[in-house]
Amino acid sequence: MAAIPSPSTAVWQAWFLPIRAYALCIILGIVAACVITEVRMRRRGAPPFAVLDIAVWAVPFGIVGARIYHVITSPAAYFGENGEPIKALYIWQGGLGIWGAVAGGAFGAWLACRQMGIPLTFVADALAPGLPVAQAIGRLGNWFNNELYGKETTLPWGLEIHEPDVNRPGEFLRDPESGAAILKPGLFHPTFLYELLWNLGVAVLVWLADRRYNFGKGRAFALYVMAYTAGRAWIEALRVDEAEEIGGLRLNVWVSIVVFLGALAYFLRVKGPQEYLLPSDGGYRSVTREEFEAGAPADAEASESASADAEAAEESTAAADDDAAEASADKDPEPDDAPRGDPADKDADEEVRASAEARSGDER
Fold this sequence. Notes:
The protein is mainly α.
């Protein structure tokens, strides 16, 4: 019977350091989300590598929030019968809840945005296609861990699952003679794969819709939330791992329904143009695309060229002023014996002299 195999190793030893596939997938997902978000933010006026300043705050808060959400929604392994509370801190063994990650990450991003003077909705819309890509990559970690699979199935894409070794997290029970990992009987729905493909579809949907409708004020992020929760609800219903239930439904299903409705209400009520950034006092101000294109240079080279042209113009003006001053100083002064006064004044002077001579003749 056709089947999808699962990895029989989820951790590798590099000398004394264990390299866990789950952790690598989470890191790769974060990197992918940062790259996509950086490109989208730069195209809308954000300073270079602003996403890294935001990630410094958002990622730690997101991981802590994701772990807290997982422990709350699956408490039996930690606080139930035979549970070990200390294992709630063992994040490398798997167990991160997406809604805790979103809530914690959003809080960390808000703190960073306040310091940088960037609107949080601007960052959320830029992140919207990148986050489901990160989730898709992260689901590969669940595949390596042989976890979060669904009910038994006879479908040709059924998933093989190895028996976990409870004494060695990330390892599996092995046949004493052959050393091969022992498989559970039967095949199971590959819910990790369902969600991986769904997340990639959500990323494409949000990207295309945002290009077509130019969403702003966080509406692209709201669209991501709606699309993701619509898939998460039915995928969650297929899973067989232990989780809290309310009214016969897993807690994650109820959360998906509530979050979907909240995102839908936000999407319908909030309106506004797609946000771009222009530098302002102490940060950045949100402007429309038209204002951005009118007020910002096309790229850094254009900005540098404009600055160089301005400096050259100033130098040229200063040189022209110096030349004019030198020319004025070198000009010959007016001669002392040059004719002065009005011609009418000269005629008056001659008449006075003629009258004086006449009087002198009469006296003689």
